[in-house]
Design a protein that fits this description.
heterodimer, A: mainly beta, five-stranded mixed β-sheet, globular, B: mainly beta, seven-stranded mixed β-sheet, four-stranded antiparallel β-sheet
Amino acid sequence: DAKTTQPTSMDCAEGRAANLPCNHSTISGNEYVYWYRQIHSQGPQYIIHGLKNNETNEMASLIITEDRKSSTLILPHATLRDTAVYYCIVRAFNFGNEKLTFGTGTRLTIIP
Amino acid sequence: EAGVAQSPRYKIIEKRQSVAFWCNPISGHATLYWYQQILGQGPKLLIQFQNNGVVDDSQLPKDRFSAERLKGVDSTLKIQPAKLEDSAVYLCASSPSTGAYEQYFGPGTRLTVT
């Protein structure tokens, strides 16, 4: 699976959009971009995933650049409950190979 | 629907002792995973089951760690004997099948080895 690079930490004001970048310059054509987050003392929670098109769900939007070498997770109206560590993971969709390889992620702090 | 259940939530043992963790996945989920998360790091996969068969245990320290999933539902992870470096949060996750996009994680068991 391709390696990802994320900033160690970020702050965002409550009510503003939080934009979390991820670099995955060695991504292969069959690899998806996944985002999970981990709130303190909880297990990770799936947020969203995408291959090459931008994706949106009730939690967030995922913007993937045309060359697929980077992506941005957008939380449109951040709340205090969005304070968490956010993990960007790149993984090929192979049946039987389900391993999620987590890095150290970005610690996002929402400021009141 | 009920989430992934794990017990105990916390455990403190001395080195060289044994410990076991239990996981009950979401009903109907065929795939079950155990991850180890050391403080300050992301989770690392230890073992993956598909029903009651092992799919991937390449990162499981087999000299001291063992896991089973009897009847393809509940699972236990055992450490025997424990070392100081085993202090971590042990997370269980499940997904409906192989190839599913989303893994559902439990709250984890925090193990402290003294």
